[in-house]
Amino acid sequence: MRHTPFAQCAPRALTRLGLALTAFATLGFSAAANAAPTDFPDKPITVVVPFPAGGPTDASARLFARAMGDNLGQPIVVDNRAGAAGTVGSAWVARAGADGYTLLWGGTSTLAVAPKLYKNLKYDAKSFIPVGMALRGPLMLAGRQGLAPNTLPELLKYAKDQALTVGSAGNGSIGHLATEYLKERAHIPLTHVPYRGGSPAITDALGGQIDLVFDTAAALAPYIKSGKLKAYAVTGAQPYAPLPQVALMKSAVDGYEAYSWFGLVAPANTPAPVVQKLSQAFAKAAQSDEVRRELAATGVEPGVAGAAEFAKVIGADFAKWSALITRANVRADD
Predict the structure, then answer these.
(1) Is the pLDDT of residue 2 over 60?
(2) 10 Å Cβ neighbour count for 246?
């Protein structure tokens, strides 16, 4: 049966996406369930991280892989398949066998943004079934030293009459979308400057070539702590633990909230008992002392509990960011 890609969903269908994903996560697929092996897993499992090795995304995947492997009695191997903003590795998993032995470490950009942002994407709304959400972290808006405003209210007032530039990791990145969301909700004119990754954007903010940078709080926190950049706001629902003094964006911009999150998904049609076993191992891993300690050390929040709740997060964020991409006419980098 042909699946309709995220990018071709009608607007009214977006509100149904969360329910559809929840149904997948809760019910699974009965036909596949009948064929599920009772001795799963009986060999190593591969988790594809669609980004380069060595970064925070890779580190979180390896943390959960170790804990899950211990719970399942089989090693879990992390395979980094980077390219095209994470869509290469994601598409590869979507085409993999639906047997529970090849999984994807998916996130906001690959599961909630890419299906709307990219044309001719090789996966869609029905390509994956959620296993569990690992973590979520807020974004942060930071500015160069020497920028006149020192507080969020001052910045918002200042930005109304100034041509401020905001750097992000690229067109269609979560930092770009957060910038467009701020422009829309705060009614301020900002000029987005796309970079090929977050590090170059931060470097230019440090050097004063741009006024502001929007990235994850974890990426910007070291520069705030060292005094090299000014923190104006974080986009979470609660204060960012490593820098609790930083204002919440929603304190000055009504309804503003944005997160970058990651979790584990399996190819669609993976047998329901296999998904259930993976979800149980994932939930146990999330509660382990090592995982909780490591997540707390990086300042990120634990993910929502359960595959069905993760499905709701994916659906809600897809609807939110898809609508914004349309309204702001966001285009991906070539």
Answers:
(1) no
(2) 24
pLDDT band, residue 329 (cuts 50/70/90): very high
Q: Is 146 exposed, middle or buried (0-12, 13-18, 19+ CB in 10 A)?
A: exposed
- Complete domains list, the chain, with CATH: 6-137+260-327 (3.40.190.150), 138-251 (3.40.190.10)
pLDDT digits (tens, 9 = 90+) for 40-73: 999 999 999 999 999 899 999 999 999 999 999 9
Bridging pattern class, strands 128-144 and 259-267: antiparallel
> Is the CB of residue 221 less than 8 Å from the CB of residue 202?
no
Over the stretch 252-286, which tens digit does the pLDDT of each residue have?
A: 999 999 999 999 999 999 999 999 999 999 999 99
State how far the Cα of 215 lies from the Cα of 232, in Å rounded to an integer: 12
- Long-range CB pairs of 244-249 (<8 Å, 24+ gap) are 246/140, 247/151, 247/152, 249/141, 249/152, 249/182
Phi and psi for 325 in degrees, rounded to 5? -55, -40
C-beta separation of 267 from 90 below 8 A: no
* Strand ranges in 100-228 using DSSP code E only, listed in sequence order: 102-107, 128-144, 164-168, 190-194, 212-216
In one-letter notation, the amino acid at residue 170 is: G
DSSP class of residue 248 equals B
| DSSP summary character for residue 295 | H
Residue 21 is predicted with a pLDDT of 53
Measured at the CA of 311, the angle between CA 305 and CA 313, to 5 degrees, comes to 80
Q: What pTM does this model have?
A: 0.88
> What's the rounded Cα separation, in Å, for the pair 264 and 57?
12
pLDDT band at 26 (very low <50, low <70, confident <90, very high): very low
Main-chain dihedrals φ then ψ at residue 100, nearest 5 degrees: 90, 0
Name the one residue in this structure whose structure tokens are 């000029």.
Answer: 191
